[in-house]
Amino acid sequence: MSDREESFPRTLWIRLIIYIAVGHVLAAFIWLLFEVGAKQ
Predict the structure, then answer these.
(1) What are the b/e assignments for 11-31, b being 16+ CB within 10 Å?
(2) What are phi and psi of 3, to 5 degrees?
(3) What pLDDT, on a 0 to 100 scale, did the predictor assign at position 8?
(4) How far apart are CA 8 and CA 28, in angstroms?
(5) Which UniProt keywords apply (predicted)?
(6) In whole angstroms, what is the distance from residue 6 CA to residue 38 CA?
(7) Overall pTM > 0.70
(8) Which of 8, 13, 15, 29 sits at a 20 to 30 Å CA gap from 23?
(9) CA 4 to the chain's CA centroid
(10) What is the pLDDT of residues 1-40, one digit of tens each?
(11) Positive or negative CA dihedral for 32, 33, 34, 36?
């Protein structure tokens, strides 16, 4: 039971880091689209 309690927060942190990374990549892509559109 203790192994399960220790592994749950680890998977939660990994999932949180992945969501934050994907969110930043998506935001950078949208910002890049606006920058390219503003130059044309």
Answers:
(1) eeeeeeeeeeeeeeeeeeeee
(2) -65, -40
(3) 72
(4) 30
(5) Membrane, Transmembrane, Transmembrane helix
(6) 49
(7) no
(8) 8
(9) 25
(10) 556 666 678 889 999 999 999 999 999 999 999 999 998 7
(11) positive
